[in-house]
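Consider the record:
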Amino acid sequence: MSEQLPPFTLQPIGKIWTGFKSREECPRNSRFNESESVIEVDPAFADAFLGLEVGRHIAVLYWFDKADRTKLQTTPPNAEKQYGVFATRSPHRPNPIALSAVKILAIEGTKLTVSGLDCIDGTPLLDIKIYVPMIDAPEGATEALPWAHKH
């Protein structure tokens, strides 16, 4: 890419409360964390909750605001060599956008209690989308790297 793309701005729509006060306390992946977290959305977006239901899954996009944005390679846990961050789930990357599929346990106003997230208390929330297995986990999808399924 020879020309520089113009920057743009993302506005957080809320915050995530996990009880984890540091990166070291956070689980390595939300899939292996069953503790409850609260997603608190700005009341201006209350109408966007229409159709959300307890027991359903959602995809949560959030910003790892404490991540190192200059890191381009890492050695993942259970891996024996380095990989580029685009071949990993490392929080350290040029744009530290995180994605987790979580189950809604409760809805109260503009707060969602969900099972398991892997971020620090107060992490900025970028967006919420419904989770659709046939779209988000396509049949025949292959694992990116052999070490990725170990935890």
